[in-house]
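Illustration 12: L-arabinokinase.
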Amino acid sequence: MERQLSLVLAYYCSGHGYGHATRVSALVRQILLLNGHTAAKGFCWSVRVHIVSSAPKHIFREAIDVGAQYRNANIDPVIVQPLAYRVDRERSVVVLKAFLEAKAQILAHEMCWLKNVGADCVLSDAAFIGCLAANQIGIPSILVTNFTFDSVYSYLTSAIIDSPTEESHESHHQLHALVPDKPVPEEVLRPLVEQICTGYRCADLLLRLPGYIPIPSFFLRPPLPSSNWVDPLTNRFRDDVFASLTQSFHDQLHPSIPYPSSILSPKPKPPRQVIPIPLLVRPRSHSISTHTGRSTLLSSIGIPHYLHDPSKTKILVVSFGGQVFRRPNGSKSGSTSPTPAHSPRQSKDLSIQQGTVGREHSKLLASKLDSLRFPRIASPFNFHVHEREYALSVSDSLATASHLWIPGAPPVSKPVPMRDGAGFTTSTSSDDDTDDEVYFDAEEEIRDDDQELEEQFDALPRLLPDSTWIAIVCGVSKDQWNSTDTPDNDLPGGFYIAPRDVYMPDLTATGDVLLGKLGYGTVAECVDSCTPFVYVSRPLFIEEHGLRHLLATDGVGIELEREKYEAGDWAGAVSEAYALGKEKRDKLSMGSRQQGTIDSETAGVKVAQTVLEWANKWR
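Figure caption equivalent — predicted structure in token form:
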């Protein structure tokens, strides 16, 4: 009978965004799948993993299904984002201060809990309290991340101002007044950030993920504040910062923080170490690499069969967050319920003019502002302010005659109708004789000067490049889903709705282009599946500098200016991303796409083995 090497791991996962949860779930799954496998001569692994997070339990379903235990706890503050690509600096500082005021109490609770479960090692992505608690009780800890929150909070001192766009200045004026953007004084942030950085300093091993930025708790250079890392004129890392990311790890690390002297018979403190690791991504379903699997997924969303042929129909996936991150039952490649049968719906108002769009946009947003409620910090353990509690769902409808409300993002002005049916259908009928004359005069003009009109038409905002494209919108709430049956909902033609529990790695791999905000989970899945990514920048979230670099080196990323996103002018960026990504995608046969999934799985196994071997050595 094989002897067992038993390990108990506690994995602390930040509640800020689902990217942390997806990669934690992916790694924990790989760790637990090693149970029973040979660890050393005559031994096999016997591992228990506890996940600790304020993120909902269902997000970790893949890990829980193979044996992970979950505990809900507020173990980190979060950056407050009133919109998918905006940051509320002032309220973020309020949340951080509240957390740090309760830090001693939280730390004592986590130390006691770690002892009670018999934890041998702590992993963290990237909650500093886990590393601090581990050090206080004399066990090693591992950071698994591409960034840490000390640099994120420190960046709130940046002189870069995130102002409303010109396109929607009138409508965003009230929201901007509600969420002012002004730099936080460095003297206010410095003592707060130092506490976070000190917690991270307790970590012994950094498993650094791709898309990384400087980790100031490990590396001596560049130092905080992180606002000094970015050139405000270009909003890009300075040359010396980029250079520091490519330098050798030797002689650049902060020394270890020793275990407290009060610990009886302390174990040796591990020397600090940095190990680069590959992307951690959730695996795609095996069936999604086949024509049948793709068709099954699209059918489950409600897309007609005649649109399933990738040689005839191209797919834009639109995702700004809000998905339920679990694999559906059944085929494991589709959503659990389809888009309502009437979708897509044709736009009824076919005469939208640019001048009326701004006024209507303002009225829509203003009429909903009264319903916005900011959560109060009622107790020391209530720190989290999630996006959905702001203006993310200021409309219960997915679309009105003049606007499209993508979940997780500000409203998008519907562009003028398109002639070829991509997004809108034009009207050519009228009951007025005078209008008939105008119509026929216009037809004569087209014949006389078709080239000029083509150029004018090409300059108009368009959601989709042409009639060969469809769009799948993700993250739809229950209320918005139900609103698709209401008479005032006007989804553009060619737009379909994916249920919130659609398995995103499969949908991302099926899409020809993805449009959304820059976040690790989306970027990693786009890179893994070679899906081009059109992104809207989050200028005050410093992680995006590393993610942009990852897209530039290992994927395809095209930035869509915020003005163009909100004006509904997506088509140009979508076309550019598709063209840049087509060569890489064409090289991936169905078989090689499947091989990509296998490579991701193999990489995950190697990371899991690294974690177990290191934890076993230093426990």
